[in-house]
Design a protein that fits this description.
The protein has 543 residues and is of the alpha/beta class. The protein has three domains: 2-180, 3-Layer(aba) Sandwich (Alpha-D-Glucose-1,6-Bisphosphate, Chain A, domain 3), CATH 3.40.120; 185-407, Alpha-D-Glucose-1,6-Bisphosphate, Chain A, domain 3 (3-Layer(aba) Sandwich); 409-542, TATA-Binding Protein (2-Layer Sandwich), CATH 3.30.310. Bound molecules: alpha-D-glucose-1-phosphate-6-vanadate and cobalt (II) ion. Cobalt (II) ion is lined by residues 92, 113-114, 277-279, 281-282. Residues 14-152, 184-286, 295-407 form the Alpha-D-phosphohexomutase alpha/beta/alpha domain.
């Protein structure tokens, strides 16, 4: 075996977005594409010499090939050891946990998360820091700089490592340890939640359905829900991870997890339903004919986390991404907790968690998690909900009704306009920006605009500034419109329009969200002149 130094040239567009570098799989399979970016990762973190990393991915098409390339390149760059999940598989939260548990120098996660997988779909790669969290912007821009001036990469010329069984191998001087992707993660969950209470609830006839959407959480769900908590075999459906996710779109929302929604709205619905995404960091929670919006789920968890044994001392503080509804803010205010508002993307929560200022974070995009790892964590949220229901002895619907009665309800929805021409989407936002100065005081749909600005975040821990993090229009009654462009898509531009309206109650707490948000939706369309800019006003996906 020898180390080859391969001459290469920079490849345009290797710029990480909201969560790593995501492109069409075919793009990643082009000559040098993956290698250039992996070398850029190592260069950006000051080299791999003597370091230990975690490597794994969500099992999508090309995961197996990419892991082999990364192992050979890590060895050629002098890494001492790589911990890799059996079969090259690790969920994103499990990878984050392994980085922390083994005090490694970081990890490389292969995933395009909620994007479909397959030769004609999407692939992705990202680096997580020694704290287990996604690289911050300073590091991702160093990766982009390194990729933009790449002239050569180093790779071992060797055979593939057998990752099919647990064991230890060598690539040159580097050790490869193949480990069980599930065990350590499942053990961590047992320290956080009251498994006895959940087990008793399930033994008492409480029926759970978990849809893993043919993605990475299948084996995790089976081990935790069926093996450790005693739910019947078959509780986890779509449990076999497949390279193309069985053709499913592994995004746990009412549109893409339709099979679960149909069951939860059907006769004989289970008591609790949940779904997770491609890499296992997202979750959707549903009860019989009750959909829990992710922003509300975050608020309910904030209000009830003390019922779980890992959180009995209460939360240190909470954080949400700016477009996420203010439901959690109301719980924080009632409990006297600090509440932070960050840009979209989990990487912005890391500093707050490391500094001990927050222990619960969430995003409207079906992401919830705590400082047990540094990623959002789908199964964690499922177990937190089961723990809360077991301790309260109530169903999902009853918990939601009493939450709204106590705190009021932040009606919320996100409308996505997908595959737009980049120039048109950008045109809409720049025209909107040009109107911002004139908007305060203006009346639309019977509401008065209080402010209009572009969200800029100054990290309270390290002072770093992130600009252009979302266009927002706030009305005098606190209702909001937020718009931003997706940073995870691979085809054209996706415009996300986030809509929110607060109702204090006691009346008007159980309206249909799209109806309750009617005036806000109309205002968003007219203020942005949507029809003119993108030629349509009906979204592709409503969550
Ligand atoms: C989306 C979500 C964001 C989430 C990100 C990664 O980003 O809006 O909240 O953190 O995906 O989630 P964007 O830029 O497309 O809006 V995942 O599960 O893809 O790691
Ligand atoms: Co994900």
């Amino acid at each position: 075996m020898t180390i080859a130094t391969v001459p290469t040239e920079p490849i345009t567009g290797q710029k990480p977005g909201t969560s790593g570098l995501r492109k069409k799989t075919q793009v990643f399979m082009q000559r040098h594409y993956l290698e250039n970016f992996v070398q850029a990762i190592f260069d950006a973190i000051g080299g791999a010499d003597g370091k230990t990393f975690v490597v794994g991915g969500d099992g999508r098409y090309f995961n197996d090939r990419a892991v082999q390339v990364i192992l050979r390149m890590a060895a050629a760059n002098g890494a001492a050891k790589v911990l890799v999940g059996q079969g090259g598989i690790l969920s994103t939260p499990a990878a984050s946990h392994l980085i922390r548990l083994n005090e490694t120098d970081g990890g490389i996660i292969l995933s395009a998360s909620h994007n479909p997988g397959g030769p004609d779909e999407d692939f992705g790669i990202k680096f997580n820091m020694p704290n287990g969290g996604p690289a911050p912007e300073s590091v991702t821009s160093a990766m982009y700089d390194a990729a933009s001036s790449m002239t050569e990469y180093r790779v071992y010329e060797s055979h593939d490592i057998d990752l099919s069984a647990i064991g230890t191998h060598a690539v040159g001087d580097m050790t490869v340890e193949v480990l069980d992707p599930v065990a350590d993660y499942a053990d961590l969950m047992e320290t956080l939640f009251d498994f006895d209470a959940i087990r008793a609830m399930i033994a008492g006839g409480f029926r759970v359905r978990m849809d893993s959407m043919c993605a990475v959480t299948g084996p995790y769900g089976v081990e935790i829900l069926e093996n450790r908590l005693g739910a019947p075999r078959g509780t986890v459906v779509n449990r076999q991870p497949l390279p193309d996710f069985g053709g499913m779109h592994p995004d746990p929302n009412p549109v893409w997890a339709k099979m679960l929604m149909d069951e939860m709205w059907g006769a004989d619905a289970p008591d609790f339903g949940a779904a997770s995404d491609g890499d296992g960091d997202r979750n959707m929670i549903v009860g019989p004919e009750v959909y829990v919006s992710p922003s509300d789920s975050l608020a309910v968890i904030a209000a009830n986390a003390h019922l779980a044994k890992g959180y009995t001392d209460g939360l240190k503080g909470v954080a949400r991404s700016m477009p996420t509804s203010g439901a959690v803010d109301r719980v924080a205010a009632a409990k006297g907790l600090d509440c932070f508002e960050t840009p979209t993307g989990w990487k912005f929560f890391g500093n707050l968690m490391d500094a001990g200022r927050v222990s619960l974070c969430g995003e409207e995009s079906f992401g919830t998690g705590s400082d047990h790892v540094r990623e959002k964590d789908g199964l964690w949220a499922v177990l937190m909900w089961l723990n809360i229901l077991a301790k309260r002895g109530e169903g999902v619907g009853a918990v939601m009704a009493s939450h709204f009665a106590e705190y009021g309800r932040n009606y919320y929805s996100r409308h996505d306009y997908e595959a737009l021409e980049n120039a048109k989407a950008e045109g809409l936002l720049s025209a909107l920006t040009a109107r911002f100065a004139d908007l305060p005081g203006m009346e639309v749909e019977g509401m008065t605009i209080a402010s209009a600005d572009i969200f800029k975040y100054e990290d309270p821990v390290d002072g770093s500034v992130s600009d252009n993090q979302g266009w927002r229009i706030v009305f005098e009654d606190g209702s909001r419109i937020v718009m931003r462009l997706s940073g995870t898509g691979t085809t054209g531009a996706t415009l996300r329009v986030y809509l929110e309206r607060y109702v204090a109650g006691p009346d008007g707490l159980d309206e249909e969200p799209q109806a309750a948000l009617g005036p806000i939706i109309r205002a968003a369309r007219s203020l942005s002149d949507m029809e003119t800019h993108i030629g349509r006003t009906e979204p592709d996906v409503i969550t």
